[in-house]
Amino acid sequence: MEKKQGLFSALEEVVRGLSPARSRAKSQSPSAALLLLPRRWKGHGRDHSLAQLPDAPLIARSGSFRPGGEALAPLMEGPDGDAPEDGGGTRREGWGRWVRGQLSRAPSVTSSPANAAGSSSFRRSDLRLLLGVMGAPLAPMHVSSADPLPHLSIKETPIETSSAQYILQQYTAASGGLKLQSSIRNAYAMGKVRMVASEFETATKVVKNRGGSARAAESGSFVLWQMAPDMWYVELAVGGSKVHAGSNGQLVWRHTPWLGVHAAKGPVRPLRRALQGLDPLTTASMFANARCIGEKKVNGEDCFILKLCADPQTLKARSEGPAEIIRHVLFGCFSQRTGLLVHMEDSHLTRIQSNAGGDAVYWETTINSFLDDYRPVEGIMIAHSGRSVVTLFRFGEVAMSHTKTRMEEAWTIEEVAFNVPGLSADCFIPPADIRRGSVSETCELPQGERSKTSIGNRAKVAAVDKPHATAASDRIIWRVEV
C-alpha cells in the first residue's frame, strides 16, 4: 500500500510539472529561437536541439533571436528546424524551403469551421484580389541603394529640388546615418498582415465590407530578405494562399497560384513593402530626384511633401499590348519634427484600349501607406507597424459606368536583423520553371472587359463576373479566364 501511495505521489508531481502554466513558461523562448536555428545543429537530432540552447535571454522583437551579446551562427543556406531527417542529415534543403516552412506554420483565421460555410467562395475571390494587388507591388522606377545620394546644391538649382535634397539629408540622418546604412550588406524582416476588401462602389450604390469586417479580414505572415545590390525575396502567406516575388538584380519575377511563375515587365525595381519603413537607404535613393511641392498635416503632424514621377522610358517598358501605363507618381510625407517618412502614396493610371476600336477603359490604382512605431534596430530606425489603403478606380466607356474598390491592410513587424551570416546571391536565383516572356502588371486588374479587349491573353487575365441571382447581386466573383 505504501508503494502505491508513493507511485501516486510521483504521478501527481509529474502532472503538476506538465501543467499549462509551466509548459507555457518553459516553451516561449526556445520555440522562438528555432526560427534562426542553424542547419548544422540539425544533425544532433530534434529531441535535444532545444536542450542545447543557452539560457541567456533572447531578443523577441526587433532583433535576430540570439542571446544578448552573441552573433548569429552561419545559416548554411538557411535553417530548417522542422524538416525530417534524411539519412546522414547532410542534404541541404535550401533557404527558400525553410521560408516556405515558416510561413506554412503561420495561423490563419480563415480556416475556422464557422467561416467556411456559404461565404468561402466569396472570400477566396476577395483573397485573390487582395494578394494580386497588395501582395508584392513594386516601386515606380529603378533605383539602386549602391548609387550615391546627390549632394546638397543651392547654386543654379531650383528651390523645389534643393529643398528636397535637404529633406532627404535630414531623413538619412534621422534614420541612422549614411555611414551605418551603407554598412548593411543584407537584411531580414518578418511580420504579420491583416487584409480586407472593405468596400465596392458603383455609380448607383455602395456595398460595404461583404461578410462583415471581422470575418471578412484575412490574416497571415510575410518574410522579406534583401541583399545589396538590388536583390530581394518576399513570401506572403494569407488565408491559405501564398504569393512569392523576388529579384536577382537583373530580373524581377513573381509567383501567384493563378498565374504561376512569370517575369515582371519593365526594369528591375525595388519592392514597395521595403520602402514602408524597412529600408531607409533605398527609400532615400528613390526620392533622390524628387521635388518638394509643399506641406501638409498627416495624423496631426506637420510634414514636407516630396513628389517623384516615373520617366516615360520606364512607363513604356512596363506597358504591354493594349494596356498602356500613362503615369506613375509617388508622394512621400516626411515629418518636420522627426525627419522620418510617415506617409507614402503612389498612384498609377493605366489605359486599356479595346481591340474593336471602342472607347478606352482607364484604371487608377492608388496606395496610401501610413508608417508608425519607429524604433531603432542596431542603430537604424525601422517602422514596426503601419496600414495601407488601396483604391481601384475604373472609369471610361459610357457615363455613369465607373466602379471603385477599396481594400485595406494593416501590418506589424515582428523581427528585423541585418548582416545575416551565410546569406548569398544564390538565395535569390529565380525559379527554374519561370515562364518565358513577361507578364504586365495590368493582369491583376479586376476587369471584365479584358476578356473582350485582349482575347489572346485570356490565360493571364483575372476577369470579373456578376451573378444573375438577386441574392448575390451585390457580390463580385473573381476568376481566372483559361
What secondary-structure arrangement, pairings included, does this model have?
Elements: H1 2-17, H2 20-33, H3 95-104, H4 120-134, H5 159-174, H6 178-182, E1 186-201, E2 206-208, H7 213-216, E3 218-227, E4 231-238, E5 241-248, E6 252-256, E7 260-264, H8 272-275, H9 280-286, E8 291-298, E9 301-309, H10 312-318, E10 323-335, E11 341-352, E12 361-377, E13 380-396, E14 403-418, E15 438-439, H11 450-453, E16 462-465, E17 477-480
Parallel strand pairs: 7-15
Antiparallel strand pairs: 1-2, 1-3, 1-14, 3-4, 4-5, 5-6, 6-7, 8-9, 9-10, 10-11, 11-12, 12-13, 13-14, 16-17
Kindly describe this structure:
21% of the residues lie in helices and 33% in strands. The protein is α+β, with helices and mostly antiparallel strands. It has one domain. The strands form two sheets. The chain has a 15-stranded mixed sheet that branches. Strands 16-17 form a two-stranded antiparallel ribbon. The chain starts with a helix and ends with a strand.
In short:
The protein has 482 residues and is of the alpha+beta class. The chain is built from eleven helices and 17 strands.
State the main characteristics.
21% helix; 11 helices; two-stranded antiparallel ribbon; alpha+beta; single chain; Lipase-like protein; 15-stranded mixed beta sheet; 482 residues; disordered C terminus; 33% strand
The total domain count is 1
Helix vs. strand class: alpha+beta
How many H/I helices?
Answer: 11
What average pLDDT do the residues reach? 74
What letter string, H or E per element, gives the SSE order? Answer: HHHHHHEEHEEEEEHHEEHEEEEEEHEE
